[in-house]
Every structure is written in C-alpha cells, then in structure tokens.
Amino acid sequence: MNRIISISFLAFICLSSMCLFVVALIIWMATILFDKRLKLLHLFSSFWASIYIWMMPAWSVEVKGKKHINKKTTYVITSNHQSLLDILVAFRLFFHFKWVSKAEIFRIPFIGWNMHLNRYIALRRGDKASIQQMFDDCNTSISQGNSVFMFPEGTRSKNRQLKAFKPGAFILAKDNHVPILPIAISGTREALPKHSLNFHGKNPIIVEVLPEISSEIVDQLSVEDLSDRVHADISRQVMNNYRIIDANTV
C-alpha cells in the first residue's frame, strides 16, 4: 500500500507540474516588466509547492515563528537539511527569497524550468567556477533586495544531528552586511528519508523560524564564530521540536 501511495503521489506531481508550469510561465510573461524581483512568481511557486503538502494529509506541517520575519529586510536564510521535503515545506513560509540549489534540480522538467524563471541560483558542488558564480549571483540578488536561502550543511544529514556547516552562507552575510535568519526543520527525514521515495506513514513536521542574527552581530563575529552560533541555535531547536513530535506520536 505504501508503494502504491508513493507511485500515485509521484504521478500526481508529474502531471500537475505540467499544468502549473504553464501558469508560472503566464505569470512570468505578464509581470516581468514591472515585477523585477519576480515576487509574484515566487508567491505562485510557494503555492505550487504547498499543493503537494496539502495533498498528503499524513504530512502535517506546522509553521512557527513567522513573527520573526520582517518582509522588508533582506536576509541570508540558513536551515538544516534532512530531506528533499525541506524545499517544499520551506515554501510554506510564503516569504520572498531566492533558493541556492544544486544544479541538477534545475534540469528537472517543469519544476526545474520554473526555478530558472524565478532566477533561483544554481550550484555545482565541488566545482570552483560554479561556486564563484554562485557567490556572484547571490551578491547580485542581495543587492537587488532579495533574501537568499541556503542549506549550510551542503547535503542532507542521515539522522537528526546536523552536519558541520560550510562557511559560504556566513561569508555571504558578512560581505553584504545583512542579517541571518535561521530556520529549524524537524520531521522531514522521517517523512521522506534520504535515498527514498517511499511513503512512510503519518509524520508531523515542524518548520520554525528563529530570531534573526542582526547585521551588527554578523559584522562583529568571525565567519567561524557565526557558523558555530547558527549551528548551535538550529541544532538546539531541531531537537526541541523532535521532543514535541516524539511526544505526540507515541
């Protein structure tokens, strides 16, 4: 039964993405001349991603801490990374940003094409030229008033423990003198584990926005100290939220 649910869900994603990409393309063509930051297109993309969460009742997503988001502020947004679902649930913030995502995702028909339309930022891991281009694209995007969303672990963790953070997000925040907005995601690993596309039953998911680390603090701390602080903040909240999830699923 789990395999049937998974196949049906993937089929729905494939079929619906064709239609939704057409809508995205129409929005892009209708707004590109006056919506230079593509805010409306990103809002539609957030709705698109949310459809797949809403269509799977077993994925109960709770978004907490949105009061910490100042929509007039440009951030470097950092989050832990447990699952492919992290991208879908982060869209539930309905907050404007540009993703930094591995280049392979951009090649997925319709979904990846929509990422190109949104001017999200591609990265080929281990490719020095791509890393430099990513920094250039992020700097440009931030200068235009767009927040950027990064997973500092670089790849999905295999368990609830956060992997070490790479320095890129923190260098970016310091170079641009912008605050960091940490986000803790808990529960996606159980809902869709790494290297799995199978349905895994009912799983509550918590996406929690933590208080920002101000640009003044970003400027004061070294890249290493900044990374350690954000890592500790996110790690602590991830484990706190897992205690809530575990208590509610006993």
Offer a quick outline of the entry.
The protein has about 250 residues and is an alpha/beta fold. About 50% of the residues lie in helices and about 15% in strands. α1 (about 1-30) packs parallel to α4 (about 110-115) and α2 (about 40-55) crosses α3.
Which structural class do you get from the secondary structure elements?
alpha/beta
Dominant shape: globular
What share of the residues does DSSP label as strand, in percent? 5-15%
Rounded mean pLDDT is 92
**What is the CATH C-level name?**
Alpha Beta
How is the main sheet built? 7 strands, mixed
- The end-to-end distance, rounded to whole angstroms, is 23 Å
Which CATH-level-2 architecture?
Answer: 3-Layer(aba) Sandwich
Order of helices and strands: HHEEHEHEHEHEHEHH
Number of strands: 7
Task: Note the total helix count.
Answer: 9
Order of strands across the main sheet: 1-7-6-2-5-3-4
If you compute it from the alpha carbons, what radius of gyration comes out, rounded to the nearest whole angstrom? 18 Å
Query: Would you identify the regions where 5 or more consecutive residues have pLDDT less than 50?
Result: none
Helical content stands at 40-55%
